Amino acid sequence: MGYKLMVGLEMHCEISETNTKVFSGAKNSYSVTPNENIRAIDMAFPGILPVVNKEAVKMALQASMVLNCKQPEYMYFERKNYYYPDLPKGFQLTQETKPIPVGIYGYVDYECNGEVKRVRVNNIHLEEDAASSDHLYDTTVIDYNRAGVPLLELVTEPDISSAEEAVAFLEHMKTVYQYLGISEADSKKGQIRCDVNVSIIDETLDMEDPSNWGTKVEIKNVNSFGGVRDAINYEYKRQVSAKENGTYDTEIIQQTRRWDEESGTTIGMRSKADAIDYKYFVEPNIPKFKLTKEWLDEIRTSIPELAYDRKQRYMNEYDLSEYDSNILVKEKKVSDFFDDTVKLGTNPKEACNWVNGMILSYLNTNLITIDEIYMTPDMLHDLIKLIDDKTISSKQAKDVFTKCLEEKKEPMSIVKDEGMMQITDESSIEAIVDEVLSEQAEAIKTYDPENPKALDFFIGQVMKKTRGKANPSIAYKMMKEKLDNMTK
Amino acid sequence: MYMNKSIEELHELLKSGEVTSKELIEESLKLSHEIEEKYNAFVTILDDAKEIPITDNLLSGIPCGIKDNYSTKGILSTGSSNTLKDYIPFFDATAYSKLKEAGAVMVNKTAMDEFGMGGTGTTCHTGIVLNPWDKTRMCAGSSAGSACAVAAGVYPYATGTDTGDSIRKPAAYCGIVGYKPTYGMISRYGVFPFASSLDHLGVLTRSVKDAAIVVDNMKGIDKNDMTSWDSSNIHLYDSLDGNVKGKKLCYIKEICDINEYDNPSNELKEHFNNFFKVLDKAKELGIEVEEVSINRTLLNALASVYVVISCAEATSNMSNLTGIIFGPRSEGFNNWIDMVKDYRTKGFSSLIKRRFVIGSYVLQSENQDRYFRNAQRVRRLLVDAWKDLFKTYDGVILPVSSGPAKKFDGDTDMLTKETVTLEEHLQIGNFGGFPSITIPDGFIDGLPVGLNITGNCYDDENVLNIAYALESAMDYKNQIAKEAE
Lengths: 488, 485
Prior knowledge:
The structure holds 2 protein chains of 2 kinds. By secondary structure, chain A is of the alpha+beta class. Chain A contains 16 helices and 15 strands. Chain A has helices at about 55-65, 165-180, 225-245, 250, 295-300, 305-315, 320-330, 330-345, 350-365, 375-390, 395-405, 410-415, 425-440, 440-445, 455-465, 470-485, and strands at about 5-15, 75, 80, 90-95, 105-110, 115-130, 130-135, 140-145, 150-155, 190-200, 215-220, 255-260, 265-270, 280, 290. In chain A, the strands form 4 sheets. An 8-stranded mixed beta sheet of chain A has the order 5-6-9-1-10-11-12-13. In chain A, α13 (about 425-440) packs across α15. The longest helix of chain A has 21 residues, at about 225-245. Chain B has helices at about 5-15, 20-40, 95-100, 145-150, 170-175, 210-220, 255, 265-285, 295-315, 335-345, 350-365, 370-390, 420-425, 425-430, 460-470; strands at about 40-45, 65, 105-110, 130, 135-140, 155-160, 175-180, 200-205, 250, 290, 395-400, 435-445, 445-455. By secondary structure, chain B is α+β, with helices and mostly antiparallel strands. Chain B has a single domain, classed as Amidase signature (AS) domain (Amidase signature (AS) enzymes). Chains A and B meet through loops of A and α9 and α10 of B.
C-alpha cells in the first residue's frame, strides 16, 4: 500500500529593505557586531511604545497582493504573549487570522520540474522578529540586533506533495521577495526560516476529505532549503514505517518536533496537550488604521516586474531560450546585471552568454554574489564591444575578464596596458601584407592556391611583424586575395 | 512661605524678582523632607535640584513633583516597585521632557501604588502614604504621593497617571484638583504602563487654572506614541473665562439618589446633600442641571469590566519585568525560568500578583470570549451611553466616592456591593478616554470631599471652564491640608 505526502509550510522571511525596524526606530540592518542596532524599545525598557513602520506595511501588502490574497479593510496588530529570554517585551507583535492580517486566502503558482503547481495560501502576516540567542558551553548570550526586525510569515495549505515541490515553492518565494525588493531572502543571514507540517494519507483515500488526513506533525525552525527537503523526507519515512509496523496510532502523535541537522532526524519537543496558550489580544497602543482604496491602488501599481514576467520578456523580446531565461531570472541581482548591460546597448544574446557562462561560473567557484565582483554592467558592455569591434579576440576577452576580476582593473585599461589592441585598420594591415609579399618573392613562386595550408606561412610573417596584433581574419582575407591575384 | 501659592502668583513674584527660583527650590526641598517624614509621600527627593532661568513660561523656575512611574533620565524611577527599585532610565518620558522644556524644576519623585495598580496608596515599596488631613486615613491612589504633597503645599503641582481614577480620587480625598485630559492628548511615551487602553497622564493641583497651565505644557502629539494627537488648537489656560451661562450638566439618578441605597450612612447622606447644594450653585451660575437615568444592569457591570480589561492588559504589559535586562536580576539559578520566577515572586506585592492571575485567566483562549471580549463589548455600551449624554449635555457631574478619605483599617481594596458604582464610576472616563476633572466641593467632619465633571473627547476646554466657574463659586480653591499647616 502506498502513502501520499501532504506538506504545509510556514515560511518566515525577514524584510531587510526598510530603513528601520517594524515598530522601532532602530536601523534595520544585518550586523555581525552584537547589539549595534538597538533602541530602548528593542530591549523593552519600561514605558516604550510601538510605532508602526509604514514602509514595512507597504511591503507586506505588496507581498499579499502578489500572493493573490485579500487585503483587510483595517490594519491591526496583536500581542502573542509568552515568556522567553529572546522576547524582551514578553509578547511578540504579530497578526492572527482574526482580525484579518495583511493577506488572507490567496494562492501561488510555481514551477517544479517544468510543471506548473498551485499552492493555496492561508494567510500572510507581518510581525516582529525576536532577538537571537547563542548557546555557548555553559552560558547563553543574547544579541538584540534582530529584535524587532520586520518578518513576513506565509502560511500555506497542505497542498505540497513532495520534498522537491516544497523546495521549488520556497525558491519561487525567495525570488518573489527579491524581485519585490523587500528582502535579500538570504538563508545564510538567517533571513529565511521555515516550519514544516507533514502528514501522510493512504493513496486510495479521497484527499479532499479532511477526515482521511493523517496526524499532522509540525517541524520547527528548519533554516535551509536543504534542511526542509531532508526533514520532509525523513518525516515521510518515519510516518510510513510506523504505518507499516502498525505503530502509527501510538507513535505518530500531533506534536511539534525539531529538525536536528547533525543527526538528520526530527526530535519530539512538545505534544498538542502542552501547547502554549498565547492569549492573543489586539495591541492597544496601535490604533486600528484604515487601508484606503487609494493607498492600496498606489501599492498595487508600485509592484515591480517579477521573475516570471522578466522571463517572458527575455524569451519574447530577446529571443533567448527558456533554459537561459530561467537561469538569468533565478537571482534578481543577476537579472538586474543582465538588464543593465543590455540597456547600454549590448546584444542580449551575447550579454546572456557572458552572464550565464563566465560570470555565473566565477561566482559559483568563488562562492560569492554578483554584487561582490569588480565587474559592472558597464565593464561587461565594454568587453563585449571590444570583441564586436574586433579590437580583441574572444580568446583574449576571456583573459581580460579574468584579469578584470582578479586585478580589479577595467577591461579598457587592461587591453591598453597589455598592448592587446588588435590592428583592425585595413590600410595598416595592407601595408604589412604588401611588405611581406615584397620580401617573400621566392615563397610566392611555390604558392599553391588549392592548398589551404599554403597561406599559413605568409600569415605567420604578418603576425611576426605585428607581434600577433593584426586581426587574423582581415589579414587572412587580404593575403589570400593578393596572392591569388598574383599567381593567376 | 511661597509654596502655598498659585502658579500665576509665583510667576509674578519670580518675574518681579521678589523671590528667586533658587529660594523656591530650597523651600520646596525643605518641605519635601518634612512631608516625607510625616506622610511618606516620596520615593526620591532631589536635593541637588538646580534653579532654571525665568522665562515667560508660567512654569519656569517653579518646583514640582513627578510621579515615580514617569521615566526621568539619570534619576531613579521605580514605579514604587521592588522589581525596579534600582532602575535608572536613560531616557525621559515625553511629558516630563516637555515640562523640563517649559522650565519646570522637579524636586522629588512621588510614591504611588505599585505600577499604579491600586487605589489606596498602601502598596508602594517605600511604605504607606498617609493623608495630610488625617494620618489615620489613606490618600487613595495610585497617585497618592502626588496628591499628598500638593495638598500639603510642597509645590503647586505634581504629575499623575490615571487608569481607573488614580488622579481624580486621590485629589478628592486630599481636597485638591485632579485632571486627566482626553486620551492621547498627553503622550504616554516613557511612562510605565498599567493598562494601555485606559492609561492617561494628568496633573494634581490646588486650582483648575493651575491644572490648565500644567497640561498646556504637557500635551502635544508625539511621534513615539501613535495614540497621541495634535492638540495645538486647544488652549486650556487661555480659554478659562468662567462664562458658563446656558451650559448643560446632568447627574445620574441611579448613582445620586439616596433612595437607591438600602442603608445609607450619615456620611453618604451628607455627601449627597453637599453635592446637591453645589448643583444649586451651578444653577445660579446659569448652568442647566438635569437628572438622567442609565440602565442599572449596565452600571452594575462597570467595576467588573474595569477589572477584566485592566488586569488583562496589565499582565501582558508587565511581562517585560523579568530581571534579565533591567531590575535586580535574581542570582544563583542555573536556568532562566527559575531566575524570572524568583524575581517576580519576590518583587511584586500580593495585590499585583492577584491581578496578574485574573488577567491571565480572562485572556486564556477558553475564557477569552466570556470574559475579556465581553468586557470589551460592555465597555463599548457604557461609552456609547455616555456619548449619548454628551449629545445633550456638556458634561456629567457626579460626587466622587461615597464620602471622604477612608480609614486604613479593614480590607481597603475590596468594594462593598452597595456603593460600588458610586466608588467606581470615574472609570467610565478611562473607558471612553473622556476629559475628566475632580474639584473639592466641601467637607464632612473636617475632611474634604470632591465632585467630578466628565465631558466628551476633545472638549477639554469646555469641561475645564465649567469646573473653573464652579470652583470660583465655592471656597475650596488653593486650600492646604489642615494638619500639614
